[in-house]
Amino acid sequence: MKTPSKKKIIKKSSVNVCDVQDWLYSDIVKDHFFNPRNILLNDADYVADGIGIVGSPACGDMMVVWIKVDEKGEKITECKWRTFGCASAIASTSMMSVMATESGGMTLSRAKHITPESIIERLSGLPDRKYHCSVLGQSALREAIEDYEKNNPHEK
Amino acid sequence: MIQENKINYFVTKIVTHAPNIKTIYLECRDGTGKAYTPVFRAGQFINVYFPETGTPEGKAYSISSAPHEDILAITVKAVGEFSNKLHQLKVGDRLTASMPYGYFYTETETSELVMIAGGISIAPFRSMILDSLQKKPNRKLALFHSSRTYDESIFRDEFAVLEKRFPNLKVFRYVTRDKVANVGIIHERLKIEDIIGTTDKAKLDIHTREFLICGSINFVGELWKGLRKAGVPEDVIYTESFFSH
């Protein structure tokens, strides 16, 4: 079998579809990427009130969000997540999890329509081509809330 | 998960609104070949798949028909390889797409809706307007539609009829490129003041009015920022953005 030339291998391995040239991350994006908040790497013992999974394995951007809800069924007390997405997906979901749980927790009705725009604003911006990364976390959170409401119809 | 819901749709009708805009009517068929329309909410989309275009994740298209019409239609502008493939479909052709999906809708039925659309993203608002009027004929509705050309300012006749029948519906059309004056068209860029000006500022912090913005990422981002700057609370703004394809 013919061995591919070294040049070819280097060229191929340096291509990363998620990385694009010439943009700068804001300091907040970098901070959330290097120190992601509320990330859940091992969910084996984590008991969530709602789970949301979105994304497509074909695109390599799977996202899982777990939430815990207060006893009254009104506010999010914990928002954990894990993704196989890129830096922007990590940073924006990290920020989203902070927004969902800060100041005593976001109400479910409010969290249902948290917008990518509000996440991006808190991150001090994301390039347009990374917009969909912020949609991932938001969609998974929405699915997690739906899951919670489905399992707790009396709380709705 | 979206990707697990791939189903076959069949094209039943095609309506051309402009040289580059078509509405494609779709139906599903059950095991016996009987046609049915999948359940959806106004504001949802279907994810269309043409794997041969090198996009395994598919592309999302908003549903422009209303649930009570018992029809599922998407309104598509031909802008690239993917949308051109949709434009080439003929009656009887099969299309692979997801079940209806998405959360671009308000859950109240009493708020006033201010809808802001850039270009082809008027599609989900046709669905929402028809749906709202069917459920609550007196609901206050305003649509601000900005398009590049007069041709792309679609659903004109249909909305004109609705505006006459429902005085609580107001449609404001903005055309940015055509300079030829047309009746009922504002030949300017859509401004935040126009949107806010038609609403009562004193009431902005009360949850009686909700804003829904749909368009390109840039369009939605700019308007979202503009509304926020004008004092509109975050939690009454809904957004849906798309990439051109």
Report on this model:
The complex is a heterodimer of chains A (156) and B (245). With 156 residues, chain A is α+β, with helices and mostly antiparallel strands. Chain A is 41% helix and 13% strand. Chain A has helices spanning 6-13, 27-34, 87-101, 108-112, 116-122, 131-151; strands spanning 50-54, 63-69, 76-83. Chain A has a single domain (30-155), classed as Sufe protein. Chain: A. The mean pLDDT of chain B is 91. Chain B has helices spanning 81-87, 123-135, 156-165, 192-197, 217-229; strands at residues 7-18, 21-29, 35-36, 45-49, 59-62, 72-77, 94-97, 112-118, 141-147, 169-175, 185-186, 209-216, 237-242. Chain B folds into 2 domains: 2-97, Translation factors (Elongation Factor Tu (Ef-tu), domain 3); 112-242, Rossmann fold, CATH 3.40.50. In chain B, strand 2 and strand 3 form a beta hairpin. With 245 residues, chain B is an alpha/beta fold. Chains A and B meet through helix 4, helix 5 and helix 6 of A and helix 5 and strand 13 of B.
Q: Which characteristics define this entry?
A:
A: alpha+beta; Sufe protein. Chain: A; globular; B: 245 residues; alpha/beta; Elongation Factor Tu (Ef-tu), domain 3; Rossmann fold; 6-stranded parallel sheet; 13 strands
